[in-house]
């Protein structure tokens, strides 16, 4: 398989020099094992255990202490560690006994719930925790240097942000290549499998098989799902609502399920890294938690598979792709996964909001699958930009370059922002 550098590697490499235990979580097939085996070249040798293998599980369930002692000079990698959660207690004892030693264990897991629960109980204060998403647009493009988003996160003022935007340029040929690559990502997603699986029908079959894996196997690690057909019905009706305010009572009625069951299913989706929620932004965190969220799929290819919709002209699916990539890139820059949307009581709304690293410049984003700017596209952005001199508005679209529309209001291609 073709190997691409992963931007999370620099964070992992640093954490292995400062923390006793490092854990990488993320969806199945996102590339966690490949990152460790091929892209994280540690100075120390690696001792790798795949805990999906029943024979390996048996060995460690009976002789883990002796195994770990025997390979004390190696970085011990435990893949799918949630399969044997009892190991985390032993890891705690091992790292406490040699507290000065950094980078002793590297844990990989595709089940957020089991791994995170055990970490909270056994390894609190001893572990650096990271999430590896499917390949980002920037990773697929092989871009080096600072992204436009990275530059904007580091500005100290709105005037500096505007200068950064005015000066930013990608040559025409490269821009066309990036736009075509984003179109492909928006259709099929960013799973590393697609680096070699290029035919559209092969990709669709793989995505269907991936869905069946988490329905048949991964969910059963979380819960005894006695009626899988109820989850499949939820999945379809939930996917239709992606990008809209999610009314749980309404979804429950349409699914013929209770509201508590819907909440539980959403919880499973979050724990398996299939979907994530965006909350309306309020300075008051309590209000933020109480307001109705929007949900998006972590990978748009998977969403399209659920809907059986690979139509390139679907604006809602394009929006999911853009916001999922924006969230990935913000995480790789800040190690925070919180991407919000903005909504006023009057219903004035924009798709995404984020701030610079100091938190004193706020960026509002509206996503449109258009190559030209229409006045209706920026109507809501104008209202948010007008609220403060520290606000900047972005219309993220498929245009050919950066264009200043008004004071602190800009149009720019999605591919330019994310590359």
Describe the structure.
- The protein has helices at residues 9-18, 32-39, 54-70, 87-97, 112-122, 137-141, 148-153, 158-167, 172-188, 200-222, 228-240, 248-255, 259-271, 285-290, 300-307, 315-334, 379-385, 414-418; strands at residues 21-25, 46-50, 75-79, 105-109, 127-131, 275-278, 294-297, 340-343, 349-355, 362-367, 391-397, 403-406, 409-413.
- Helix 17 (379-385) links the parallel strand 10 and strand 11 (391-397).
- The two termini are 23 Å apart.
- 42% of the residues are buried.
- The mean pLDDT is 90.
- It folds into two domains: 9-132, P-loop containing nucleotide triphosphate hydrolases (Rossmann fold), CATH 3.40.50; 139-418, no CATH class.
- The chain is built from 18 helices and 13 strands.
- The protein has 419 residues and is an alpha/beta fold.
- The strands form three sheets. A six-stranded mixed sheet has the order 8-9-10-11-13-12, with helices on both faces. A five-stranded parallel sheet has the order 2-3-4-1-5, sandwiched between helices. A two-stranded antiparallel ribbon has the order 6-7.
Chain-wise SSE layout:
Elements: H1 9-18, E1 21-25, H2 32-39, E2 46-50, H3 54-70, E3 75-79, H4 87-97, E4 105-109, H5 112-122, E5 127-131, H6 137-141, H7 148-153, H8 158-167, H9 172-188, H10 200-222, H11 228-240, H12 248-255, H13 259-271, E6 275-278, H14 285-290, E7 294-297, H15 300-307, H16 315-334, E8 340-343, E9 349-355, E10 362-367, H17 379-385, E11 391-397, E12 403-406, E13 409-413, H18 414-418
Helix pairs in contact: 9-15, 10-15, 11-12, 12-13
